[in-house]
TrEMBL record:
E.C. number(s) listed in UniProt: 4.1.2.13
Sequence similarity: Belongs to the DeoC/FbaB aldolase family.
Highest rank taxon of the organism: Archaea
Annotated InterPro entries: Aldolase_TIM, DeoC/FbaB/LacD_aldolase, DeoC/FbaB_aldolase, FbaB-like
Positions annotated as active site in the UniProt record: Y146 (proton donor), K177 (schiff-base intermediate with dihydroxyacetone-p)
GO molecular function ontology, one term from the record: fructose-bisphosphate aldolase activity
Name of the protein in its database record: fructose-bisphosphate aldolase
One Pfam family cited in the UniProt record for this chain: DeoC
Length: 270
């Protein structure tokens, strides 16, 4: 690990990564409820919010839109990804080289590793190449550590998520993105075994403002360094209100009640 390699994508050692690779990973169905979210400019605009420390997109969106936003958005280049049309074993194509991402102005790379998948070995070797190239360019490294595959009955059990977090440390990530394992104790376990590698919670499917903020608050109290979130932000009619509240919980260490009281986020559902 190179100290401070994630400086550009953190603030006060914390991160709020806005992820917008869903058009590839899940397809346009993720934009159905808020049709404006299919327009990358809409979500690039959201990514200019002060709370967002980095914006994770695939190469196509970065090439087409990032030049107009480079003064206001910190680019996290999501190098690999696979469509939901793929019916094979969990795997992720490397769609973007570190060199090209650096040329486009990215400050960090993002890379998915499916630990436990039949393709884990190849994915780990691809991660090695990307991680070492990122070091050459002083770019931060974020691992989307998502164990899955035939042998995994429960991919969000406490032991699996702690293992996912540890893989990030072992393989040289600055930040590891993990799914929420369902309890404060399990989240703490994952954070405790991550050493100097920061842990951020993955957002998951959309929930109410209060439920989402409470989960983020629990994760932060358990030792997480922030959040990497997609649907819970861009699937809202007013993403700014939730980002205002997330800023309070993540960076100002406020409670959910305090954050809801201080912002226009909803107290019930959205
Ligand atoms: P969400 O906050 O919407 O869950 O996004 C996080 C993320 O990791 C995205 O970057 C990615 O597109 C998606 O989840 C993949 O989720 P899954 O592999 O579980 O379908």
């Amino acid at each position: 690990m190179i100290p401070l390699a994630d400086d550009a994508i953190t603030r006060d050692e914390k991160a709020l990564i806005l992820a917008y690779d869903h058009g590839l990973e899940h397809g346009p169905v993720d934009f159905a409820d808020v049709p404006a979210s299919a327009d990358p400019e809409t979500v690039f605009d959201v990514a200019t919010h002060d709370a967002v420390t980095a914006f994770a997109v695939q190469k196509g969106l970065a090439e087409a839109y990032y030049p107009s936003y480079e003064d206001d958005v910190t680019l996290l280049a999501k190098l690999n990804g696979t469509s939901n049309l793929w019916m094979g074993e969990p795997d992720s194509a490397v769609n973007w080289s570190v060199e090209n991402a650096a040329d486009l102005g990215a400050d960090a790379i993002g890379f998915t590793l499916y630990g436990g998948a039949n393709n884990e070995v190849e994915m780990a070797e691809e991660f090695r190449d990307a991680q070492e190239a990122a070091r050459d360019h002083d770019m931060g490294v974020v691992m989307w550590s998502y164990p899955r595959g035939q042998g995994l009955k429960n991919d969000t059990s406490g032991s699996t998520i702690a293992y996912a977090a540890r893989l990030g440390l072992e393989l040289g990530a600055d930040i590891t993105k993990i799914k929420y394992p369902g309890s404060a104790d399990a989240m703490k376990w994952a954070c405790d075994v991550s050493g100097k590698t920061k842990v951020v919670m993955s957002g998951g499917s959309k929930t109410s403002d209060r439920e989402f903020l409470e989960t983020v608050e629990t994760a932060m109290d358990a030792g997480a360094s922030g959040l990497a979130v997609g649907r819970n932000v861009f699937q809202r009619e007013d993403p700014t209100a939730l980002l205002d509240a997330l800023e309070q919980v993540i960076f100002q260490e406020k409670t959910t009640d305090e954050a809801l009281a201080a912002t226009s986020a909803e107290t019930t559902s959205n």
